[in-house]
Amino acid sequence: MSPFQSAAHDSIDAQAASWFARNRNRPDAQTRAQFDAWHAQPAHARAYAEFESLWADLGELQHRNKPLPLPVKPAIKRRSTFALAAAAAVLGAVLALNIGTPVTLHQQQLTTQSQGAKTLTLPDGSTLYVNANTQLRLDFNAQQRDIYLERGQLYIEVAANKDQPLVVHAGDARIRVVGTGFDVRRSPRQLVVSVAHGQVAFVPDAKRSALLGADQRATYDYARQTLTEHTLTASEVGDWRNGHLAFRNRELASLIDELDLYRPGIIELANGPLQQYKVSGHLDVNDPLALVKALPALIPVNTVWLDNGKIRIEPR
Q1: Which UniProt keywords apply (predicted)?
Q2: What's the rounded Cα separation, in Å, for the pair 4 and 22?
Q3: CA–CA separation, 214 vs 47, rounded Å?
Q4: Strand partners for 166
Q5: Where are the domains of the chain?
């Protein structure tokens, strides 16, 4: 099956993301012809143009925080200072009238506990879902909406505003959007970004980046410094909000990493090949240890209950 044929089963956003990635790798003549046929449809061309714009904005984002030298300003006469202040006031009033509703400035810190998932409506109209054991900080200004995720997981339905993009910061990583719905989970082992709809630019470090469309996930492994992408079903993105997680062929290490969000420091995983064992099933977020107890029936492992109250998963 050709890339063009396989892409037909995905959403237009996912197709655009896939073609954008291929075109950056110098496609051959056959692939280029397939892209031209796909791109000929107006809806496809619009989606592809949005990804090109997002990628260009991403380059600007990476340089946003670089310090700039302060210009040397000539001395201003006291009389002129009042004139400039008055001019600035008039200009501010004119801009406020012309750009529509002014952006609401907002700062907030939020920490949830083990059973403390929360839902918030933000001043910009976005809806923020915060999972258990999560710590984050909001800092919205006139140019950008910043969310600093220290640990844990969030899902956000972003109110569209091209003049004020939203950026999630997770350590050195950046996830940038304009208007979309997506999920971010930050843990000691992994940083995972999943997209429900729209487009997301994900930059986990200085060397790697990904453009994600609807029903796509990217997982960054801190220890390996690898970035892998997966295709999801629509119901899998942010499914923890309903109290249940569904997973298919998940590596055991990745699954335990997610379980740690609900029972921090309780589950230990032995080193070795068992970390790559694949697991499928469902998880009740209110009773995550039930899945741990069931693991020996799903894969060849044993669960050992230690004297310190922790659970160690070992190969059988």
Answers
A1: Membrane, Transmembrane, Transmembrane helix
A2: 11
A3: 12
A4: 145, 177
A5: 3-62, 106-236, 243-315
Evaluate if residue 119 carries a pLDDT over 90.
yes
User: Confidence class of residue 226 from pLDDT cuts 50, 70 and 90?
Assistant: very high
Q: Give the pairing of strands 127-130 and 106-111.
A: unpaired
Angstrom distances, CA of residue 223 to CA of 62, 105, 168, 232, 262: 23, 37, 21, 24, 22
Q: Which residue has the tokens 């200072």?
A: 81
d(CA 168, CA 163): 16
Residue 31: which residues within 8 A CB-CB, separation 6 or more? 3, 22
**At 49, which helix (H) or strand (E)?**
helix 42-62
Contact status, residue 203 vs residue 62, Cβ threshold 8 Å: yes
pLDDT at 134: 95
Instruction: Fill in the DSSP letter of residue 172.
Output: T
Mean pLDDT value across residues 202-211: 91
CATH topology of domain 243-315: Phage tail protein beta-alpha-beta fold (3.55.50)
> Structure tokens of 146?
């910043």
**CB-based burial of residue 9 (10 Å sphere; 0-12 exposed, 13-18 middle, 19+ buried)?**
exposed
Q: How confident is the model at residue 142 (pLDDT cuts 50, 70, 90)?
A: confident
Candidate CATH numbers 3.40.50.1820, 2.60.120.1440, 1.10.10.10, 3.40.50.10420; the one for domain 106-236: 2.60.120.1440
In DSSP notation, 60-108 reads HHHTTTS--PPPPPPP--HHHHHHHHHHHHHHHHHHHHHS-SPPPPEEE
